Automatic annotation (TrEMBL):
Signal peptide: none annotated. The lineage of its organism: Eukaryota, Fungi, Fungi incertae sedis, Zoopagomycota, Zoopagomycotina. Keywords: Phosphoprotein, Repeat, WD repeat. WD repeats lie at residues 245-287, 381-423. This is WD40-repeat-containing domain protein. Coiled coil: none annotated. Pfam families: WD40.
Length: 490
């Protein structure tokens, strides 16, 4: 299945991505990050093992057991000593025991050559690789699309390139993940490995069933470790649950990057908290706990920043409430109730005083923040018969809304008149739909994913009824081959 999607704007990706290199500095960085994640938090385990060893010695005594008879035909292979250390290795092993075994302790000894011509195991001439350059080339007028995919218990990111002019979508490269991914968020702020470099980057933040947040560089292929990890200390802190103000202690459900204060990333978690992360320090800057009613299931499902007021955010929870507040004064928040668990939430960039909430009952609720807490919705739209998994507003066409559902349909709605009306509905063949998102640079292309494990791009610009309904807000080019919906397969 594909559980989440994230678009990358045109021109954000490097035209020729970098190949990952394990330099001395990178080796040291990866080793430190890996050891932080695997270090045992309880030293009592070693003590228990030592007690067991002593008990075993006392029980069995110091006498060595007699060696078993060896088959003469196997004697020449000396199998009883095959795992003994070679001369000179004992001291090295003792040093490793004293200093701690590194997960990547043997990588440093691997042979490498400055030029492929010097490597006897590479027989392909470097000139033959010129044809591969075009395969990884990303043009300035191409979009990237990142999909979080899980298949046979293996999770990874599929990084697609979408060529709108050619109606082409293909996998550019992929990234392995340690756990099932739940949410994605694109950002251009340089963090971690390339934090000191100038200019904007091309990164994807990933939330999974683990409490950490990984940040990967989309301009680097074959990377073996993320550029940064937020909240990694939680695994080694014995009192992590008591100190959840510093890091999450459960799955990360939603991520939101602040486009104005670019070093700030917000996260929502199943541990009922919402956190702000400073990407300069990779530390938690603040933690909010306003969805903590112990009498209900209060996992925070979604967090999103206001499109105009850069410090204002909205959150939605399984406690069936939605809140909006200024992160500088979180005590003064506005709260609304909905009759079902919150699934998705989006601010209206064309009417920023309003936001739309989709719920497990298939409905979409529009709220106006100016009306205050407990106000009734501006309107309620029963968009689907089953859970409405996502809702998105078109970035340039006012009043154009898309909803998706586990009923396998994607629907486009017109809100311009104040009374929602459906413009188009389609089963795009991805199974139960988890996400449908408008392309940020296109007239009306949507990326859709779901349980089938594939990505579809729905080109709705060729739908005659939809074009006529939106003609007062956008001009569409004449479609080739007549009016018909086009779906591009990934």
């Amino acid at each position: 299945m594909i559980s989440a999607l994230a678009w990358v704007r045109k021109g954000a990706a490097k035209e020729l991505p970098d190949k990952y290199e394990l330099t001395e500095e990178e080796f040291q960085r990866v080793s430190e990050m890996a050891n932080e994640r695997i270090r045992a938090p309880d030293e009592g385990v070693d003590a228990e093992m030592a007690i067991d060893d002593e008990a075993g010695t006392a029980k069995n005594g110091n006498a060595a057991a007699p060696e078993a008879a060896i088959d003469p035909e196997l004697a020449e292979y000396d199998l009883e000593h095959y795992d003994d250390p070679a001369p000179g290795e004992e001291e090295e092993e003792e040093d490793e025991e004293d200093g701690g075994m590194s997960l990547f302790s043997k990588i440093k000894g691997l042979s490498y050559h400055a030029s492929n011509e010097d490597d006897p195991y590479i027989v392909m001439n470097e000139n033959d690789a010129d044809s591969d350059v075009e395969d990884v080339h990303v043009r300035a007028n191409d979009n990237m699309l990142v999909a979080a995919k899980t298949e046979d218990d293996i999770s990874h990111l599929e990084v697609y390139v979408f060529e709108e002019a050619e109606d082409n979508l293909y996998v550019h490269h992929d990234v392995m993940l340690p756990s099932f991914p739940l949410c994605l968020e694109w950002l251009d702020f340089r963090a971690g490995r390339r934090a000191q470099e100038g200019g904007q980057g091309n990164y994807i933040a990933v939330g999974t069933f683990e409490p950490e947040i990984e940040i990967w560089d989309l301009d680097t292929m074959d990377a073996m470790y993320p550029d940064a990890i937020l909240g990694a200390e939680a695994k080694k802190d014995k009192k992590a649950k008591k100190k959840r103000g510093k890091f999450h202690t459960d799955a990360v459900m939603s991520l939101a990057w602040n486009k104005t204060h670019r070093n700030i990333l917000a996260s929502a978690s199943a541990d009922t908290t919402v956190k702000l992360w400073d990407l300069n320090t990779l530390k938690c800057a603040h933690s909010f706990e306003h969805h903590t009613d112990k009498a209900s299931d209060n996992e925070v499902q979604v967090v999103t920043w206001h499109p105009v007021e850069a410090t204002v955010m909205a959150t939605g929870s399984y406690d069936q409430t939605v809140t909006a507040f200024d992160s500088r004064a979180p005590g003064n928040l506005t709260r609304w109730s909905v009759p079902a668990d919150v699934e998705s939430l989006v601010w209206d960039v064309h009417a920023p005083q309003q936001f739309y909430v989709s719920a497990e009952n298939g409905a979409v609720y529009c709220f106006d923040v100016r009306q205050g807490s407990s106000s009734t919705p501006v309107f309620t739209l029963q968009a689907h018969d089953d859970a409405c998994s996502s809702v998105d507003i078109h970035p340039t066409i006012p009043g154009c809304l898309v909803t998706s559902s586990v009923d396998k349909t994607v629907k486009i709605w017109d809100l311009h008149s104040g009374k929602p009306s459906m413009l188009s509905s389609r089963d795009v063949g991805v199974g139960k739909v988890f996400s449908a998102k408008f392309c940020p640079d296109s007239k009306l292309h949507l990326a859709v994913c779901g349980t089938a494990g594939s990505v579809r791009i729905w080109d709705a610009t060729t739908g005659g009824a939809l074009r006529r309904a939106l003609a007062d807000r956008v001009t569409f080019p004449e479609p080739e081959g007549g009016f018909k919906d086009v779906c591009i397969c990934g």
